[in-house]
What we know:
By secondary structure, the protein is an alpha+beta fold. The chain has one domain. Helix content is 32%, strand content 26%. The chain contains three helices and four strands, in the order βββαααβ. Strands 3-2-1-4 form a four-stranded antiparallel β-sheet.
Amino acid sequence: MVRFIVNTLGEHTIDNMVVAGPNKEIIMSMAEMFLASYSGPPEGDLDYYFAEYIIKFSYGQGRILEWLPAPPPGIH
């Protein structure tokens, strides 16, 4: 889970690539572009990298407020 703010869009939360916030439609419209260009580690925390992508896309006019890393894969 990542909670972040972008000055022009407000505060949002991303949890398992599901966005909550006042402009979630705008942010979710960027998800396909992000996933197509993501070149990080396959086990990377997509929520965190997606929030970073949105902040970079807004010319750095935002910041991450809270981040709870994804739990490691479960042992079954």
